[in-house]
Design a protein that fits this description.
- This protein has about 350 residues and is α/β, with parallel strands linked by helices.
- The protein has 12 helices and 12 strands.
- The chain has one domain: Aldolase class I (TIM Barrel).
- It has a 12-stranded mixed β-sheet with strand order 7-8-9-6-5-4-3-2-1-10-11-12.
- Helix 1 packs parallel to helix 2, helix 1 packs across helix 9 and helix 2 runs parallel beside helix 3.
- Bound molecules: S-adenosylmethionine and iron/sulfur cluster (2 copies).
- The site of S-adenosylmethionine has 21 residues, from strand 3, strand 5 and helix 12.
Length: about 350
């Protein structure tokens, strides 16, 4: 059964955050001033187990989800994540299973274990080829070489095509755009540039810090001329460009300057089992409560708590998706107080 929201958008993608913890402190995501030693992460007992995640995923897939991305926090911090990958890979009806990682823990052995478990593709984040710049962005001293090693390990394990995601923040790494393009031209990997977004409440986002997709494409096009490519499918978030000399393609994710809410088919499940219908949501719907029961309320709807059947969980998901009218990025620029001051969930809690 397919679910459709109030704006006619189907539920097709599910991003599952498996932990809110991370071993990086990227300035645009988990600034160390806020995510310091005293920061309260989710207690481990609150995280969904692999069985709980798989049960929910099966219900989502039965209701139209075709693609699942594992994310975080840093998903490779979750012990034996390959076991979860194997459980999800076995779900009938799932077309695409992938994972986004910062790469720091992606050894050749881990890459092979993930592939053997059934992971088909992987996305690795890398913000610069300049060690000083990269370290000033991850704030924990991990080197560029480590991440390039992870990319090679993923390639050797056959996790193709590899996507490499680079968030561009003005004043930090815009000088890395062209060198990154040069490095990954001809590599078979797809480099994607992401506009810096105002996710969460911690990164001190300002519009002036956004380097627009247009600016990024122009900077590369001046050196290696580009031409646009048709989207692979309706709702693809990255706008595709290819090098005119045939040396591969890049993507740009213009979530700020060219929002794509109209075709947004993504739901997000936090590590503690809350369902979010938008990256910029303030609250999520507590699905864990349906699984386990216990203290807490399920907002606005009357449903059983604890020991719910698959049908009852499916009805709750259908209700949440059916009420969905999110289009935050399209209204962001109107910058009304309601938008500017609203509380939003942190990116590290629900994943990119
Ligand atoms: N830790 C993993 C990683 O970094 O790849 C997965 C989780 S991370 C939240 C997922 C993606 O979100 C990363 O590619 C990251 O660069 C991106 N991201 C985080 N904060 C962002 C922001 N403020 N604007 C745009 N992208 C952001
Ligand atoms: Fe961690 Fe990824 Fe956020 Fe960086 S972007 S702090 S690696 S979760
Ligand atoms: Fe989807 Fe929300 Fe992003 Fe719009 S702002 S594209 S609705 S996640």
């Amino acid at each position: 059964m397919r679910l459709t929201d109030r704006l006619g958008r189907p539920l097709r993608d599910l991003r599952i955050s498996v932990t809110d913890r991370c071993n990086f402190r990227c300035v645009y995501c988990m600034p160390k001033e806020i995510f310091g030693p005293g920061f309260q992460f989710m207690p481990r007992s609150e995280l969904l187990t692999f069985e709980e995640i798989t049960r929910l995923a099966r219900i989502f897939v039965a209701h139209g989800v075709e693609k699942i991305r594992l994310t975080g926090g840093e998903p490779l911090l979750r012990r034996q994540i390959e076991v979860l990958v194997a459980m999800l890979a076995a779900l009938p009806g799932l077309d695409d299973l992938t994972l986004t990682t910062n790469g720091s823990l992606l050894t050749p052995e881990k890459a092979l274990a993930l592939r053997d478990a059934g992971l088909r593709r992987i996305t690795i984040s890398l913000d610069s080829l300049d060690d000083t710049v990269f370290k000033s962005m991850n704030e924990v001293g991990v080197s560029v070489e480590t991440i390039l090693g992870a990319i090679d390990a993923a390639a050797a394990a056959g996790l193709h095509p590899i996507k490499i995601d680079m968030v561009v923040k003005r004043g930090l790494n815009e000088a890395s755009i062209v060198p990154m393009a040069g490095r990954f031209r001809d590599s078979g990997h797809i480099l994607r540039f992401i506009e810096y977004m105002d996710v969460g409440n911690s990164n001190g986002w300002r519009m002036e810090d956004v380097v627009s997709a247009g600016e990024i494409v122009r900077a590369i096009d001046r050196v290696w001329p580009l031409e646009p490519v048709e989207a692979n499918y309706v709702g693809e978030v990255a706008e595709r460009w290819r090098y005119r000399d045939g040396r591969g393609e890049i993507g740009v994710i213009a979530s700020v300057t060219q929002p794509f809410c109209g075709t947004c088919t993504r739901a997000r499940l936090s590590a503690d089992g809350r369902l979010f219908t938008c990256l910029f949501s303030g609250t999520g719907y507590d699905l864990r409560h349906l699984l386990r029961g216990g203290e807490g309320a399920v907002e606005g709807v009357s449903v059983p708590t604890g020991g719910a059947t698959d049908d009852e969980i499916a009805a709750a998901v259908a209700g949440v998706w059916g009420r969905r009218a999110d289009r935050y990025s399209e209204i962001r620029t109107s910058n009304t107080p309601a938008v500017g001051t609203r509380r939003k969930v942190e990116m590290s809690a629900i994943g990119g």
